[in-house]
Design a protein that fits this description.
4 copies of one chain form a homotetramer.
Chain A (H helix, E strand, L loop, with lengths): L6 E2 L2 H7 L14 E5 L7 H12 L4 E4 L3 H10 L12 E4 L10 H12 L4 E3 L14 E3 L3 H10 L6 H6 L1 H12 L2 E4 L3 E5 L5 E5 L10 H15 L1 H6 L4 H22 L7 H16 L1
Parallel strand pairs in A: 1-9, 2-3, 2-4, 4-5, 5-6, 6-7
Antiparallel strand pairs in A: 7-8, 8-9
């Protein structure tokens, strides 16, 4: 379909995109991530994303979901702040059923999207693409991308997307005007201006329940950390997305090793994100 | 009593039955396990089984038990999905008092049993054997098997079962038409077509509260992972059951070593399941 | 005051009192401990004791305290059973305010004490000494022992007990007709028939909040494991109490080492109990 | 602004301020810390402070905040006592919104401040400085100190405080009559009598959400441990504050190493406090 030149993201590329905190940093300058994910039905998505964001170096995470979900988040991550306030980036959508978004939740999502800070949109928030102008990266898997494009009257199917993920990521980026991170064994990142990056998963054990929520958290943290750069350079978003995918894969690989070569769970991946970052920073 | 030739399951036998995920796998193709276990009275059974299933490599676990139990499950395993949906195998019965099954719970069990995907039946679900035709493995201990056979008007006692577990496992498999995994220091697996496998526990510390729930979770994950093979070859069930028992024992042995040779708890066993699988996959 | 010959309990003495599970053991034969400790005001005592009992090798723990405490117990130890049933030993009293024992709780304590299986009585249950005839060990600290003796019209004070713990442990054993384990930097164990054993704490970091609850759990597990021997030989109780104190101290020492020589918490002690037992079993 | 001679606190200075428990210590003599922090809005602050205090060697922590916060505290630290009683030091204020202090909470804070035992005042309790005469250390960051001084009609701004933290810490100590620990990449400790100590953070990863709550917990534990010395020598407070800051930084450095050089969270810092103390005690 497309003739774009794709490049595989390397460790050295990723290392250039990470920012270690300096002497003048505080938790605010390091980046505050606002998270609107999870629901009574799917609380786990919030827990996984929030934990991964903290592990990936967010200065602070604000989580303001339903009360019982907040309690679960705090039991796991007591450092999370569960009241609203200023944020430098948003992570929206996972663990939310778009067909059952309440009035309050819809208001929160619209508030976030209107705030003009960079946004990571996933799963149950994907249909909101195009309702705002802030720098945005979406993180669908093949089925979600096919649905999203069908909603925009682009004919495709999950089989077609799977057969040529590079082309469909690129097409979606152009159609939707946002950075697209299409998840898969080879993750494809495309932006509307032509950036085209692949990240090949180093372990197939990455395909486990909640893995995508962890990726969302990592990416949210990186975007929050880079908020100053992103304000002046929207092209920085695709390389950040690629860096998140690379860290996600490397953390999974480290988790497999820590588990003696056996299965891993999403929290196992989260637990190794700091080590993956530490390696990159050398 | 019987003259069947029993074989002890070896590490190499087990290794052949494990499937590592490949590039085309996602969490659904790796196998989704539906879990209907645990209750207000016995919530722990659900926590242990669900955690063990994730540790054993289930692509996803769906747990739809009572609300407070779901909250406990999510606090421990945020990657678990607590709403219904398509599954490739069921784990039913542990932590449920058969004398106090509610109308809703009975409906859920019947729904699961009617779904024609493979079923692992344990403890409080054992009386449902014979009410469905899906490939089934039951996992009783000696007392439960004696009760189950007595209910079918087969005269026996817990003492008789303990005295000759091989014979009684075989007899039960024939009477009930399902694969029988009879738990004990030597676990005996028999299927109606004559498969007869023993798995000798490598440590007597395996006999600890909740240990059987962990075994159920491991077996559930293996069955969900093998759902495609099982659809065409029901004979694959007994070897999977033997493999689960072997992994359970080896994980316990690794846990004892991690605890300096001292006592272990059921969660300690769960924590080592990935390492036991990693060893087998070599 | 007394001329009894006291002996310091050695590692080899303790090793003789431990029983590793054998091929014929199941969780019931290994010993079921019933725990009636903790309350709305002091839930933590239950959590610590239950966890320590499992770590010390109880086959099963039954905990039937207040509902919110049960939820906390299960979140920490999903292998615990929270409904009543047969037990082989009881641990009673810690985390209970004797002045605020409810009607239900009083009934539960009386039921336990009437059941004739061995009993470990601590803290808020100490006043019940003498209301039953089952083999009993009490585990007071100096202040509790002084109060307990004062209630029996034995004149003493916490200062006097601290000044001569050996003598007062012995005196209390005679007055009360039970085994007395008097906690301190040197723990003194005395039984009415003249057993007199000391256990010197290997680290002063043992003196931390909840440490006594952990000791209670260890002792409860050992008593449950030895229930058969105790049925025929009440003299076995004092050596078991000394063994529990020695394991408690050694686990604390291992925890200090694991913490780089720094402070430890009660759960840190619990976490090392298996290793302390493993060492003894060699 | 000032010509005071500041000294950088060294490991050897800190080591002299730590007290290892001795044979006559029990949990009470080691120091009981009363904690009034956290709220329905900000429960995490309490969890982090309480956990850090236990990790830093408090003999016991009493936490009496809102019921749901107590439940979260107990799930994490079952050794914490959640009813009132005698304490040897107080930690007050973090996780409390000063504009929304309830009648009950205000009463608790006033009760604590009137009790004449040493006080660590942080965040939402800083406005209470000057309402009591007990030995006090406050732990503001630059913005909080600027606000606090502005409330006392001292003209300054967060920028001015950041530009010359030494001078403003000293000024505040004189104006307010308390020990001031001004948090930053270089933490400045000043007391009204001229003590002037700096502690340079060994890692910029210390700037993470909840990090200040962990510092509060460490300092609270040190103050409770030193309660006897503090009763006779108020000058001991500034060196203790410097020691807490040094331990906090060293624990963060150890946590970064444990995380492979990558990001850390506040609980990661807490987890390494024992090791930092162990190192100092050598």
């Amino acid at each position: 379909m497309a003739a774009t030149s794709w490049r595989e993201w390397r460790t050295t590329d990723a290392a250039e995109r990470l920012r270690a905190p300096g002497p003048d940093d505080d938790k605010y300058s390091r980046g505050v991530l606002g998270v609107v994910t999870g629901s009574h039905e799917y609380p786990g998505a919030a827990l996984l994303a929030v934990e991964a964001a903290m592990r990936a170096g967010a200065g602070m995470v604000r989580y303001t979901g339903p009360r019982p979900v907040r309690a679960l988040v705090l039991a796991r991550c007591p450092e999370v702040v569960t009241v609203g306030g200023r944020v430098q980036a948003w992570l929206l959508g996972s663990g939310i059923d778009p067909a059952r978004r309440s009035f309050v939740l819809t208001g929160e999502l619209e508030h976030a999207l209107a705030s003009r800070v960079p946004v990571v949109l996933d799963a149950g928030g994907l249909d909101l693409v195009g309702t705002h102008t802030a720098p945005t990266v979406i993180t669908p898997h093949a089925r979600e991308l096919a649905t999203l494009l069908a909603d925009r009257e682009v004919r495709t199917s999950v089989e077609e997307v799977r057969a040529d993920p590079r082309a469909w990521a690129e097409r979606a980026a152009h159609e939707l005007g946002v950075v697209v991170l299409l998840k898969g064994a080879v993750t494809c990142i495309a932006d509307p201006d032509g950036a085209a990056i692949t990240v090949t998963a180093p372990t197939h054990r990455l395909a486990t329940a909640g893995s995508g929520d962890v990726l969302g958290g990592i990416l949210g943290a990186l975007v929050a950390s880079a908020h100053e750069e992103l304000a002046s350079d929207a092209h920085a978003l695709a390389p950040l997305a690629a860096t998140a995918a690379l860290l996600h894969g490397r953390a999974a690989e480290l988790a497999v090793a820590a588990n003696g070569g056996g299965p891993i769970t999403a929290p196992d991946i989260s637990a190794r994100v700091p080590h993956a970052i530490g390696e990159l920073l050398g």
